[in-house]
Automatic annotation (TrEMBL), chain A:
Keywords: ER-Golgi transport, Transport
Compartment annotation: Cytoplasm, Perinuclear region
GO biological process assignments: endoplasmic reticulum to Golgi vesicle-mediated transport
Pfam family, any one: Sedlin_N
Cellular component terms per the entry's GO annotation: perinuclear region of cytoplasm
Protein name, as recorded: Trafficking protein particle complex subunit 2-like protein
Top-level lineage group: Eukaryota
The family this protein is said to belong to: Belongs to the TRAPP small subunits family. Sedlin subfamily.
Keyword Zinc-finger recorded: no
PANTHER family: TRAFFICKING PROTEIN PARTICLE COMPLEX SUBUNIT 2
Protein source organism: Malurus cyaneus samueli
Xref: Gene3D superfamilies: 3.30.450.70
InterPro entries named among the record's database cross-references: Longin-like_dom_sf, Sedlin, TRAPPC2L
Automatic annotation (TrEMBL), chain B:
The organism's place on the tree of life at top rank: Eukaryota
Keyword hit for Ubl conjugation: no
Record flagged with keyword Cytoplasm: no
Ranges where the Trafficking protein particle complex subunit domain occurs: 264-522
Annotated PANTHER family: FOIE GRAS, TRAFFICKING PROTEIN PARTICLE COMPLEX SUBUNIT 11
Protein keywords: ER-Golgi transport, Golgi apparatus, Transport
Subcellular location: Golgi apparatus, cis-Golgi network
Protein name: Trafficking protein particle complex subunit 11
Example of a GO cellular component annotation carried by this entry: Golgi apparatus
Length: 138, 1167
């Protein structure tokens, strides 16, 4: 079973990537990177409606043979991408949505946290959250 | 065919099935008529023609034999699902209809014989088709056009006879007249054939269905599938695609109900693949792409795990790849026919997946087929079959038709597998993969998936690498690298770079090798330290003109070849200098150049720092650092160079200045003196060059455009600016790399002037005056300021009209005219000694009111010494001042009668008064030097026009008035008459004598002149005395050319007694005047009403006494008797003053004076 969490900036460079298990990580990086095509297209299709509608969850981006790729985009165009093993039937749309919401909240928390001090990786707190989430589903 | 293609779909599966009709009795080689008929059948078959495939065969052609009908299936055990020849048989061998062409006219003389021959031909065909349901039809080729049906009695008789003879129904006999409308006849014919063919296929379907009842589920499972497939296929031939689809679906479900075992799994998969292909194809044809996709997904899910024999796992991967590729092809074909695909559902995904399975196939093959070279291909070839083909689709050649799940001959099985493995070894997998990938790339390009496209191109590149086509691999990888770089996906970039480095190593491409090494050592690389260290050592070797160590995981044979190439490179002399432009990638040396200030004065040296930082694991030396500017003269001052020995390069000392220590920022400071001609210009760093290696070995020039920065630095700068991270404190001489910003240009500005400029003047300026402004320049320089120049005047860039209405001059004594300029540029002032003070008066004349900006710009040359170098530089200082211009005074003019009553018109020849009023508006006192009334020709003065306001000084708000007595001769035109103008000569009251006088000309208003018939004026003393006679003379003047009858009467007043004519009628001749003399005798003192004179003109009833009142006095002042005279003299004077006092309050003293003068002049003024 494999699960991959990813965070990508408005300019589409990766902010945070984590995958479990770690083997074949490169392939997942590629998967996440290519899924941004669909995210970009969805954002541009939604256009201004996105802001009014406030629906940040983009749903299933595209199916591959073995994985399902889900997307989520914040109002400031930070993108979250999740790659889940196709065989994992326990994760339905609702669960994915709530996982994204959790990730978003956690991301907002660390971005707003003024007390992150020198030398500390801002994504450390994020990391623990992601870890606990992955533990639950894997 | 041989097994390697047994997962390829056969042609007969992929084509569109069409009814098969054979034409016999046509000699298309020697008979022109037959040839034309055949051409009409087969040429130009567009979509609107019925779907039939025709074939010309000889009349005695042997059709495939029909096997004897089985009466019972009880003991029948099928050997496979579908025979390999079956589809082809029904597409190309067994016709639905055989047409016998025969040349026969209805009026054929030898009818009997011909009829017999025709019947024989039909019989032969029937013989050959023994046991089949194939229809037979006869077409008579006739030379004559047939008559309409029913008219030709012989024809219908003979037709019936022929049908009888040939045992044909009337529907199967056709006549083809060989006339002009051949194609039309042919189309009608083939439509009829099509109907026959459909009937045939219908009966075939019924026939196959009829077998079903004999089958049982235990032994005939295979037959269920076979029959269902046949029904579907016949339906397709019948062009009944809906039923075909339905039957294929059933067949598909039946295939998966078969008991699967390792021995028959290939057959099941093959058939499932065939049927799936048919279903998907029909779904696309019915324009239900979602059904097609759903079916395909189902198919893949069902078959994915049916790998079969583990030793032949690559076969399964190949089969999977084929499934995806075929589906992609179908999808793509449907798109070409008008289907619309979307980004997330397009053929690209299927090609990609096909490529993925092809890769898997390659992997499995390399794992399973790595036989030792001593293993030879088994003989006899187990893949050979007696007929050369397989009997059933998807079976093993060495055990055809064996349904048992147990392997009867394990040895044979082993040989079979071995031969398959050995054959797989020879397959060019990379080629297959690359083809599929490039198909996918083409699709993703179409559906806006740039990243997917890049990813696939990376895979293509890697595949080319595996295929040892390094040049192509490098080309592809290089193409996509920048996309990953620009989006900052460093892990992916590193992986691509690693492959690219291997390619460039194996090809011994020096420049590429160096470039990729530079980037892999850089901060964007996610390689581990040991890897970086290895790459850096290799790079140093390359710089020393040695061969690098091979990259890991490279093909050994390729490494050997490349080592030879490297050795050749080493021996080659020359072309060992590589210039690498770094802004397009992320090298391991970062550079930032920074001018210390955005601008430098020309008399101070320009200073800048170049910061360098290396990200590689070991310290690295460089041989030269040089900076280029837009003005190349400065390049020579900004070079750091150190010749070092070749052996020093490995010495890892961090002491030398020319060494970059990882993680430490190195600063190089430069300074140079700017050229004086560059004042006002920008000095820009156009490039920074860092030279690694030496010219004796290899030399790499890292070239940063502008002041440094590479592909990632702009993004990093943005992040650093946004980051709120606190940075640890560093020692004073160190800086945080992130906080450094590039400043690649600076301005050279002129030296700060050391002089003061002061302006002395008294604003506001008055219109048209020569406004004096004194500029004081004082030098605080320590040496002589040479060539001092003053530019003074209106600041350019203001309203264009101001330029016209502003004049500047250095000479204030004489008034300037409009030809003077608004700006005096570069007035030479000479030299200024240290401490010297210089004053320059500037005179400005402003013709209009309003604010103006004036510029005073002093420039001079001075010698200074910068860094021991003497330069002559020009300094300048400018001052601007805004000066308001106002009117000095307002002038009001009015016309009044001699009785000071306001006049809106004057009477010809009758004197009137012109009053002027000058009201000072200037904040400074002004002196009216003189004033002058310049009358026009139509006006004449009554007395002297001397000025009364000469040398009057007016303070703000004060006014000076004058009045002039004028007369206007009669004029002919009734409209206005020009009065003339009023010239005021004035100047600012100032102690300076030289201020010139300004003449302000005021044009006086026009006045309407009216003539009157009679003018009366009275001649009387200025005052009377009680009881003393007061003689009054009235002059009645006839102003017309007519004799006038005048009635004159005098009405008595209480204050006077009078003598004279009380009432009289008289005549006055034209131009003459009549004198009336009265003697009034005042009775009371004071201001008394005179007895009033009434004049009536007979000819001019409009002439009223009202008008008369304007000319003659109505009152007079009567003084007391003479004996009081002396005593009252002073008091009467006081009284006058009291009367005048209201005027005195409002106007200036001058008016006072002028009034008094006028009062004392007895002729003109009465109060």
């Amino acid at each position: 079973m494999s699960l991959q969490g990813d965070l990508s900036s408005p300019q589409n460079y990766p902010l945070y990537i984590r995958s479990v298990p770690t083997e074949n990580e490169l392939k997942f990086h590629y998967t996440v990177h290519t899924s941004l095509d669909v995210v970009d297209e969805k954002i541009s299709a939604m256009g201004k409606a996105l802001v009014d509608q406030r629906e940040l969850y983009l749903g299933l981006l595209y199916p591959t043979e073995d994985y399902k790729v889900y997307g989520y985009v914040t109002n400031s165009k930070v993108k979250f991408v999740m790659v889940v093993d196709s065989s994992n039937t326990a994760l339905r749309d609702n669960e994915i949505r709530s996982m994204f919401r959790k990730l978003h909240n956690s991301y907002t928390d660390i971005m707003c946290n003024p007390s992150i001090t020198r030398g500390q990786d801002p994504f450390q707190a994020f990391d623990t959250m992601v870890n606990s989430m992955m533990m639950q589903v894997c | 065919m041989t097994p390697p293609t047994h997962w390829d779909f056969p042609v007969e599966l992929c084509c569109r099935p069409m009814a098969f009709v054979t034409l016999t009795g046509l000699d298309v080689v020697y008979n022109a008529v037959h040839r034309a008929v055949w051409d009409a059948f087969c040429a130009n078959r567009r979509a609107d023609r019925v779907p039939i495939s025709f074939k010309v065969l000889p009349g005695d052609h042997e059709y495939p034999k029909c096997r004897t009908k089985r009466t019972s299936y009880e003991w029948y055990i099928p050997k496979g699902i579908l025979k390999t020849g079956w589809m082809n048989k029904h597409l190309n061998l067994v016709p639905a209809l055989v047409v016998v062409f025969y040349e026969l006219d209805w009026d054929e003389p030898q009818w009997k014989e011909k009829q017999l021959e025709c019947a024989t031909r039909v019989e032969i065909v029937r013989q050959s088709l023994q046991g089949r349901n194939t229809k037979v039809a006869v077409v008579l080729i006739q030379k004559k056009t047939p008559l309409p049906p029913g008219e030709d009695v012989i024809a219908s008789e003979r037709a019936a006879a022929l049908c009888n003879a040939c045992d044909l129904s009337g529907k199967s006999l056709f006549v083809l007249p060989h006339t002009d409308h051949l194609v039309g006849y042919i189309i009608r014919l083939e439509n009829a054939f099509y109907e026959h063919a459909q009937t045939y296929y219908y009966t075939e379907i019924r026939r196959v269905k009829s077998h079903k009842e004999f089958l049982n589920k235990t032994t005939h499972q295979l037959l269920f599938v076979r029959h269902q497939f046949k029904i579907a296929f016949f339906s397709e031939l019948k062009q009944d695609t809906q039923n075909a689809l339905k039957n294929y679906r059933t067949a598909y479900n039946l295939v998966h109900e078969l008991r699967a075992h390792e021995t028959n799994i290939l057959e099941i998969k093959t058939m499932a693949g065939f049927i799936n292909y048919k279903i998907c194809r029909l779904c696309f044809q019915h324009n239900t792409p979602l059904d097609a996709i759903a079916q395909f997904r189902k198919h893949i899910d069902l078959c994915k795990k049916k790998i079969g024999s583990a030793e032949l796992a690559f076969e399964h991967a190949a089969w999977m790849s084929k499934q995806f590729q075929a589906f992609g092809d179908l999808f793509d074909e449907a798109i070409k026919l008008g289907l619309t695909a979307i980004q997330t559902q397009n053929p690209g995904f299927y090609y990609q997946q096909a490529a993925y399975y092809a890769q898997e196939r390659k992997q499995l093959a390399s794992m399973l087929c790595n036989h030792d070279s001593s293993v030879t291909y088994p003989s006899p070839d187990p893949l050979e079959t007696p007929t050369g083909v397989l009997d059933f689709y998807g079976q093993r050649p060495w055990r055809q038709g064996i349904l048992s799940f147990d392997l009867s001959d394990p040895e044979k099985e082993k040989m079979g597998i071995l031969s398959l493995q050995l054959k797989e070894k020879n397959v060019l997998h990379s080629e297959l993969i690359i083809t599929l990938l490039s198909n996918a790339v083409a699709q993703f390009k179409k559906y806006k998936c740039p990243r997917m496209k890049s990813h696939l191109m990376v895979q293509m590149g890697e595949e080319y690498y595996y295929a040892k086509d390094y040049a192509k691999a490098l080309k592809l990888l290089d193409y996509v690298m920048c996309e990953y770089r620009s989006e900052g996906w460093w892990t992916l970039l590193t992986s691509i770079l690693t492959t690219a480095l291997k390619c460039s190593y194996l090809m011994a491409q020096l420049k590429d090798y160096i470039t990729y090494s530079l980037e892999l050592l850089g901060r964007a690389s996610t390689l581990k330290e040991d890897q970086k260290s290895r790459i850096e050592k290799n790079l140093i070797k390359v710089l020393m003109n040695e061969s690098p160590d091979p990259e890991p995981d490279c093909d050994t044979a390729a490494v050997k070849a490349s080592q030879k190439l490297w050795a050749d490179r080493v021996s080659l002399a020359g072309s060992n200098i590589f210039t690498i432009e770094v802004q397009d990638f992320i090298p391991f040396v970062q550079c930032k150049a920074k001018f210390l200030a955005p601008s430098f004065h020309v008399d101070v040296p320009v200073q800048f720092d170049v910061y360098l930082r290396a990200d590689c694991p070991h310290p690295i030396r460089f041989s030269k650092l040089c900076i280029s500017f837009n003005n190349q003269d400065y390049n020579q001052y900004c070079v750091v160079e150190e010749a070092y020995q070749k052996s020093d390069i490995l010495e890892q000392s961090s002491q030398g200045t020319m060494c970059l220590v990882p993680g430490k920022t190195r600063k190089f400071s430069f300074k140079f003196v700017a050229k004086t001609e560059d004042v006002g210009k920008k000095i820009e760093i156009t490039s920074v060059d860092l030279i690694l290696g030496s010219e004796s070995g290899r030399c790499v020039i890292l070239n940063w455009r502008g002041g440094g920065g590479d592909a990632a630095s702009s993004q990093e700068a943005l992040q650093a600016a946004r980051s709120f991270k606190r940075r640890p404190k560093l020692p004073d001489n160190e800086v945080h790399w992130d906080t450094l910003t590039i400043q690649a240009s600076t301005m050279i500005i002129s030296r700060v002037p050391n002089i003061s400029v002061q302006l002395r003047h008294e604003p506001p300026a008055l219109t048209n005056e020569m406004y004096c402004l004194i500029v004081t320049v004082e030098s605080h320089e320590e040496t002589v300021a040479k060539d001092v120049k003053l530019t003074a005047g209106l600041k350019p860039g203001q309203d264009a009209n101001l330029t016209q209405k502003t004049q500047v001059t250095l000479h204030g004594t004489d008034a300037c005219d409009d030809s003077f300029p608004a700006l005096l540029p570069d007035i030479p002032v000479g030299d200024l000694q240290p401490g010297e003070k210089l004053e320059k008066p500037i005179y400005i004349r402003c013709g209009t009111v309003g604010a103006r900006m004036f510029l005073f710009y002093i420039s001079y040359l001075i010698n200074t010494v910068v860094e021991g170098k003497e330069i002559l530089c020009r300094c300048h200082r400018d001052e601007t001042v805004t000066i308001d211009t106002v009117f000095p005074f307002d002038v009001a003019v009015k016309f009044v009668s001699t009785k000071l009553e306001h006049l809106d018109r004057v009477f010809a020849d009758i004197p009137f008064l012109l009053m002027t009023d000058i009201l000072s508006a200037s904040p400074w006192p002004i002196t009216i030097v003189t004033s002058q009334l310049q009358l026009s020709a139509s006006m004449t003065p009554v007395d002297q026009l001397e000025s009364y306001v000469g040398n009057v000084v007016l303070q703000t708000g004060e006014s000076a008035s004058e009045c002039f007595c004028l007369r206007c001769p009669p004029v002919t035109n009734a409209s206005g008459v020009a009065t003339g103008c009023y010239v005021i000569s004035w100047k600012r009251s100032s102690p300076v004598e030289s201020v010139p006088v300004v003449n302000t000309i005021i044009t006086l208003p026009h006045v309407i002149v009216e003539s009157i018939p009679l003018h009366v004026n009275a001649d009387l003393p200025s005052f009377g005395r009680v009881r003393e006679s007061l003689p009054v003379r009235y002059h009645l003047q006839n102003k017309t050319n007519l004799v006038q009858d005048v009635e004159v009467s005098v009405e008595p007043s209480d204050a006077f007694m009078f003598s004279g004519l009380k009432q009289i009628r008289l005549r006055i001749l034209p131009g003459m005047q009549q004198e009336m003399l009265y003697n009034f005798y005042p009775l009371m003192a004071g201001y008394q009403q005179l007895p009033s004179l009434h004049v009536n003109l007979m000819r001019f009833p409009n002439f009223t006494n009202q008008l008369l009142r304007r000319f003659i006095p109505t009152n007079i002042f009567v003084k007391v008797r003479l004996q009081f005279n002396h005593a009252m003299k002073n008091r009467s004077f006081d009284f006058l003053r009291i009367i005048l006092s209201p005027f005195a309050q409002n106007s200036a003293f001058s008016f006072h004076c002028c009034c008094l003068q006028n009062i004392l002049s007895p002729k003109t003024l009465f109060i």
